[in-house]
Amino acid sequence: MDIKYEVKTSDKLGRYLVAAKDIRAGEKILAEQPFVLGPSSDTSLVCFNCYLPLINKFFVCKFCAVAPICPGDGCPEGIAKWHVQKECDFLRELKLNINMSPIKMVQNVGSLLTLRALLQRDNKSWDNFMKLETHLDQRRNSSVWEYYQSTVNFISELKLLNDDEDKNLVQKVCAAIDVNSFEVRGPPIPALGYAETLRGVYLQAALMAHHCTGNTIISINDNNALMCHASKDIKKGEVIYYNYTDPLKGTALRQEHLLMGKYFQCTCERCLDATELGTHMSSALCPACKTGFITKSGEKWQCHHCKEETDDSVIGFKVKCCQNKLDVINKKDEKELEEYIRNVSLVLAPNHYLLIDAKQRLAGVLRDAINREPRPTKKMMRRKLNLCDELLPVLEVLSPGISRTKAITMYELHLAIVQLAKKEFDSREITGPKYLDELLNAEKHLKRSIEMLLIEPGNSPEGELCAKALEQYRMLKGTMATILDGIHEEGKVYVTEIDEERLNDVD
């Protein structure tokens, strides 16, 4: 068996993974099924067998007479089933001994994941689950501890634990799940598409240390199998990192997320760099020189151009106002988003995470409008193209190598280039050779997008986009061949822009 990683231990990282050999970008590092998977603590009611949302009504398992399950014909075929025999027998005993009611289970659906973890105490993987980081001392007597007391009380009512077992075992299980779980898409309701977000604990993947630029990418398929691939080359002995935060958020928000959910403060290169690797994702425009970018250092913001300092009370207030404005605008309205970007660009750096958020949303709105309208304008296409062009350099820095967001952005950029070039060629604004130049440019972005999307599960949204991108690539090659034939029929020779530059250099 080709082992790609090994587990090491340190005071700073605890248990963590390092590369046992050189790993190439795109290479699979690990694949595993969840130790336990289930709904989050604030979930709506789901089927205890397949995790489909139960909206109007539910049936009860006919064997245990306790577990809520799908009504009608039962759970759909092809979806993993989680109400296993052991659990069914346990609930049946509860029904017979303490008259456990289905309503009690409905009321405590948020504790189902904890219950299912505890029912695996005789599983050979239980000890590895118990070794996961919990930060229990930091959670003790906190609001989180108090929140999970209802789960502790529910488990106590089930008589699942012996008197001699750890009194804090339930809290420890809740903590292990909170700190180490990954979000998993639940099965969607047919026709509606609505699904609950589930949480899964993957015992090996949970050991990956955090880094805000990471070197891995994770995907989870419809069978709940987690696949971890290298997003860039990893040398033997290097730490295998995963980014547990949103790379398109500023440092303060990422640090807050990690402190609340993972109980540590990140000290990676990006977090220690006030410019966030030169992207200025949390920077504002200097109110003094109007051209430089100011970054926060303690209670002061300093301009990197004129060195002028400004109080945090001034810049922090402006950033907060920009955040509040983004929270209330209609994020599906093109005009409101354009106005927001125009106004906030007078205050924040061009790549500030609030502007990046607004630009991503605007690109999505324009995409939908272009696809929906019978005759979309060239102005809309150019605007979408420019937005993708602005986003890509930021993504190249913050998500180096293979990146899901980058792949989608490149796909949308290629689409905008193709659509705009076709419209300009049809209206005779550009020649055949220029049209072919644009299509070659689009092909370059599309190929990179496909290369990144190929590792995605086929039944995921990204996997479906990959299939769509492959079809687009086939069509694009056909269009390029047709245009090239037309150029040759006119007795001309097509020279690419790159070849033309080389010829000019020779001259």
Give the % helix. 40-55%
Average per-residue pLDDT, rounded, comes to 93
From the N-terminal CA to the C-terminal CA, the straight-line distance is 57 Å
Major beta-sheet overview: 4 strands, antiparallel
Strand neighbour order, sheet with most strands: 13-14-15-16
Computed structural class: alpha+beta
Number of strands: 16
Give the C-alpha Rg: 27 Å
Number of helices: 18
What share of the residues does DSSP label as strand, in percent?
A: 5-15%
Protein name: SET domain-containing protein
Domain SET: 3-245
GO molecular function, one term: S-adenosylmethionine-dependent methyltransferase activity
InterPro entries: SET_dom, SET_dom_sf, SET_SmydA-8
What does this structure look like?
This is SET domain-containing protein. Residues 3-245 form the SET domain. GO terms for molecular function: N-methyltransferase activity; protein methyltransferase activity; S-adenosylmethionine-dependent methyltransferase activity. By secondary structure, the chain is an alpha+beta fold. It contains 18 helices and 16 strands. The chain has helices spanning 85-98, 102-107, 112-118, 126-130, 136-139, 143-147, 149-157, 169-180, 251-261, 269-272, 312-328, 334-344, 353-372, 378-398, 404-426, 432-453, 461-489, 497-506, and strands at residues 5-10, 14-19, 28-32, 36-39, 59-60, 68-69, 182-185, 197-201, 209-210, 216-220, 226-230, 241-242, 284-285, 293-297, 300-303, 309-311. The chain has a four-stranded antiparallel β-sheet. It is globular and about 90 Å long. It starts with a strand and ends with a helix. The model has no long low-confidence stretch (mean pLDDT 93).
